[in-house]
Design goal:
The structure is a single chain. The chain starts with 6 loop residues before the first helix and ends in a 7-residue tail after the last helix. The radius of gyration is 23 Å and the shape is elongated. The protein is mostly helical. The protein has two domains: 11-46; 53-86. The protein has helices spanning 7-46, 58-79.
């Protein structure tokens, strides 16, 4: 004789699946946003951060150092390097 699962028996699995699907959707949305930000940064970098060699001053250097420091935090965290090394 086969056993047919009741609603109460499948509810936890269904709820878990729904939470998993929502987590996957949120993960994909965050990844898509990160990819878009990286594309924009790559384009800005390819354009030398909208500066020409004749315009470069120490303010530009400071701005790029700030960007670099924030990106280093992210990459160190992602790759478990620097302050995030184990």
């Amino acid at each position: 004789m086969t056993h047919r699962a009741t609603d109460s028996e499948t509810a936890p699995a269904t709820g878990s699946r729904e939470r998993s699907n929502k987590a996957l959707d949120a993960f994909i949305a965050a990844k898509t946003e990160i990819d878009a930000m990286l594309d924009r940064l790559a384009a800005l970098s390819a354009d030398h951060f909208e500066t020409s060699p004749d315009e470069i001053n120490w303010g530009h250097v400071g701005t790029l150092n700030h960007y670099r420091d924030r990106l280093r935090e992210i990459t160190d965290s992602a790759f478990k390097e620097g302050a995030f090394a184990r």
